[in-house]
Specification:
Topoisomerase I, domain 3; 5-stranded antiparallel beta sheet; Rossmann fold; 23 helices; Topoisomerase I, domain 2; alpha+beta; 823 residues; 38% helix; 5 domains
């Protein structure tokens, strides 16, 4: 019997902590949340003080049963879930669940938190338990209730007015708005031409470049030179004035010092891992969780980093001492500043944890622990280690110089250079930044030759380059996370799930590293901004987050907060229920069909974006064609739209005389020959594929079918085929499963025909749902009739047919047994 039962969230964490606590403690995992709102309307009772109705999460029922069983043999319950609001809520839900079952009678319940999974910290936490924080739990309940009220009311509205299966989240919707607004900026962007004039100079054999800063006595701006004629005229004018040399008019030398970046928060870790390692936010958090929960380092299991969900940039005093000692050991005492460096967070609501994300011990060098880690774990640990160590190292020192060079009296250039004198923290780590190229130029060195005022420098060439302004870049995961944080939308622990949800709903797609909104995403965003603008407003969302933070601090009550929200939100929902579908899913007019003279429009339908020729008011029915994967409603051209109506395309005929056509169906593009179909491969384009490639695909499918054929029957199209989920019967048009207990090779042609007829009778007819008559009983009756009919016909034809043969050689005896079995 174990005296103490400790509950954590994951089995990996349980395994690590068990080693630290010893035989008097049993450690089990809850596997995340144990309860959630019942998945139906009324789970948050708005008429009864926002009471919330919970149920055990089905997939975690067995884990709850294990906890209940272990608790019966324990004297005390220790709730050691993660040290944030989510973890607090998990502990509270579990305690409530056990209390409802009357399992906590006379058993103390203690709450402990571990910010790092090391023996010292775990044992220290056990010595300092506390009660479950009602304020943190209330904040989490309020957040869950708000998400439910928004999702359960907005989502059905989207289903009816836009497309089935859509969702609108309280925080994901403003994030979608950011991506869509950036796309609109890009679409509306008008490029402008501009030219630069750069001097290529040389002194003592060392070449360098200088940028034009003054032209004809006036300051040179970005658009001072905006066409070819102007640029070439300026070049000739400057060359004439320079007479092959530039005069050094001023030299400005100074020393610049640069401080390191602060240690990681959740947000900056996600951003930097995306820039430097190419990790998505979810991949970063998944890997960080593994490093936090514990890794086997050759017989010793340790948590390698502190808790990874945090807004704080603080480092504990003992951590500072550890880092400073590691710096001295690895890089020398001169790399350690006289005093520790302290950082202040920019987040006004930083509170989730008491420290930044850091190694639990800086003395565990990446090169030493890397051999025990997965590639992702090793990369992320090294990133965290370097950032933490660098933040406590000396400044980087640069010598910078700016030289003004004049061409005659009216034109001037400036050359800038810098030399790294003391690397300081740069010897370990250099922060990445978002730039148009996606890279940071912070550490680029540009050396200049020594120059003094009055020196005359050789002008080698004057280069005029044309440029065009570029639209603002699309959001990457890193820049989106950064912007969400700047707007104070959501919390760092939610960013990964926000991004995953947007992708899962097909609201956005990741092209390379950049997010592009889909047609569905654009229309959902337009609907929300036009009809629920307040609820996707950045300031409103941030203010609501502030209110939830106030609840977590005990400064606000959660039920009045929900009441205030619901009082404004519900009437808006009721009002918008009256909208027509056409008011929401607007059509874009593309042009006129040159053949029919009818209008062509791009629209969003229940099954995705499509192009339509004609209108529903026309005497003839409109024609429809689905957009291709890389096409969008707001950008498709008339030429591209017309091309969509070239399907089905006839490619020619087979030697057998069958026509070969290509088309796009419900399950993607395909080739059709006679009554048979073959799916196109990923790289095949239905609009450009030709007959030879189609024949190749047809032959490949025939070969695959032949290879998978278990048995064929001469004189018929019936064969038994090995399928992905077991053998089945097919005659090229119909398919039937083989009943359990029947061996495929023992089936006769009569039985196969009977099973096919039964399957055909049971299948719903095209053009509508099954009527009431097509019940199970009716299906069985139809199948029996079909079986009798088929059996009679088969008996008459049996004498004319050859005995069935296997795809491989089959003995006469086996064939005879098969026939005998049918009799």
């Amino acid at each position: 019997m174990s005296k103490n039962l400790v509950i954590v969230e994951s089995p990996a964490k349980a395994k690590t902590i068990k080693k630290y606590l010893g035989k008097d403690f049993e450690v089990l995992a809850s596997y995340g949340h144990v309860r959630d709102l019942v998945p139906k309307d009324g789970a948050v009772d708005v008429a009864n003080g926002f009471e919330m109705k919970y149920q055990v999460i089905e997939k975690n029922e067995k884990h709850v049963r294990a906890i209940i069983s272990a608790l019966k043999d324990s004297d005390e319950l220790w709730l050691a879930t993660d040290p944030d609001r989510e973890g607090e809520a998990i502990s509270w839900h579990l305690a409530e669940l056990l209390r409802e079952k009357n399992l906590l009678k006379n058993k103390p319940v203690r709450r402990v938190v571990f910010y790092e999974i090391t023996q010292r910290e775990v044992q220290n936490a056990i010595q300092h338990p506390r009660d479950i924080s009602d304020d943190l739990v209330n904040a989490q309940q309020a957040r869950r209730a708000l998400d439910y009220l928004v999702g359960f009311n907005l989502s059905p509205l989207l289903w009816r007015k836009v497309q089935p299966g859509l969702s609108a989240g309280r925080v994901q919707s403003p994030a979608l708005r950011l991506i869509c607004e950036r796309e609109e900026e890009i679409k509306a962007f008008i490029p402008r031409e501009y030219w630069t004039l750069e001097a290529q100079a040389e002194k003592a054999g060392q070449g360098f470049s200088a940028k034009l800063i003054e032209l004809a006595g006036r300051k040179a701006e970005q658009f001072t030179l905006n066409n070819t004629v102007g640029a070439l005229t300026a070049k000739n004018m400057v060359m004439k004035a320079a007479q092959g040399e530039l005069l050094v008019a001023a030299v400005d030398k100074k020393q610049r010092r640069r401080n390191p970046a602060p240690p990681f928060t959740t947000s900056t870790l996600q951003q930097e891992a995306n820039r430097k390692l190419g990790f998505t936010a979810s991949r970063t958090m998944r890997t960080a969780q593994q490093l936090y929960e514990g890794v086997d380092l050759g017989g010793e299991t340790l948590g390698l980093i502190t808790y990874m969900r945090t807004d704080s940039v603080n480092l504990a005093q003992d951590a500072l001492a550890d880092v400073r000692q590691t710096i001295a050991d690895q890089f020398g005492a001169s790399s350690v500043p006289p005093e520790p460096r302290f950082f202040k967070t920019k987040s006004k609501n930083a509170q989730e944890a008491h420290e930044a994300v850091r190694p639990t011990s800086a003395a565990r060098l990446p090169r030493e622990v890397g051999k025990y880690l997965t590639p992702d774990q090793a990369k992320l640990y090294e990133l965290i280690w370097k950032r933490t160590v660098a933040c406590q190292m000396t400044q980087a020192v640069f010598d910078t110089v700016a030289v003004e060079l004049r061409a005659g009296t009216d034109h001037a250039f400036r050359a800038n250079g810098s030399v790294l004198i003391e690397p300081g923290f740069i010897a370990v780590y250099n922060q990445s930044y978002d730039t148009p190229t996606g890279k940071s130029d912070e550490d680029d060195e540009k050396r200049l030759p020594a120059m003094e005022v009055g020196d005359r420098i050789k002008l080698v060439d004057l280069v005029a380059d044309q440029h065009v302004t570029e639209p603002p870049p699309r959001y990457t995961e890193a820049s989106l996370v950064k912007t969400l944080e700047e707007y104070d939308i959501g919390r760092p622990s939610t960013y990964a799930s926000i991004i995953s949800t947007l992708q899962a709903r097909d609201y956005v797609r990741l092209d390379g590293k950049a997010f592009t909104p889909t047609d569905v995403g654009m229309i959902v965003n337009r609907f929300l901004t036009e009809h629920f603008g307040q609820y996707v407003d950045y300031e409103f969302t941030a203010h609501l987050e502030d209110d939830l933070d106030a609840v977590s601090r005990g400064e606000k009550q959660w039920r009045p907060l929900l009441a205030e929200f619901w009082q404004q939100f519900k009437p808006r929902i009721d009002e918008k229920m009256e909208l027509s579908r056409s008011e929401v899913s607007e059509a874009r007019q593309i042009g006129i069909d040159p053949v029919s003279g009818k209008p062509i429009s791009a629209r969003l339908g229940r099954f995705g974006p499509f192009v339509q020729i004609g209108t529903k008011e026309d005497e003839d029915k409109p024609r429809f064609a689905s957009l291709r994967a890389n096409q969008r409603i707001d950008t498709i051209t008339l030429e591209q739209a017309l091309a969509l109506f070239t399907l089905p395309r006839s490619l020619g005929t087979l030697p057998s005389g069958e026509e070969v056509q290509v088309n796009i169906g419900r399950f993607g593009p395909y080739v059709r020959h006679g009554s048979s179909f073959v799916s196109l491969k990923k790289d095949d384009d239905p609009y450009t594929i030709e007959l030879p490639r189609a024949i190749e695909l047809i032959e490949q499918k025939k070969e695959a079918v032949e290879a998978a054929t278990i048995k064929i029957f001469d004189g018929t199209e019936i064969r038994i085929i090995k399928g992905r989920f077991g053998p089945y019967i097919s005659d090229g048009k119909r398919r039937a499963r083989i009943p359990k207990g029947r061996e495929a090779e023992t089936l006769s042609v009569f039985e196969c025909e009977a099973y096919l007829a039964e399957a055909e009778a049971a299948a719903p007819k095209k053009g509508g749902k099954r009527g009431k008559a097509t019940t199970k009983a009716a299906t069985k009756t139809a199948a029996k009739k079909a079986t009798k009919t088929v059996a009679k016909k088969a008996t008459k034809k049996a004498a004319k047919r050859a005995a069935p043969r296997k795809a491989t050689k089959t003995s006469a005896k086996t064939a005879g047994e098969s026939d005998g079995g049918a009799g």
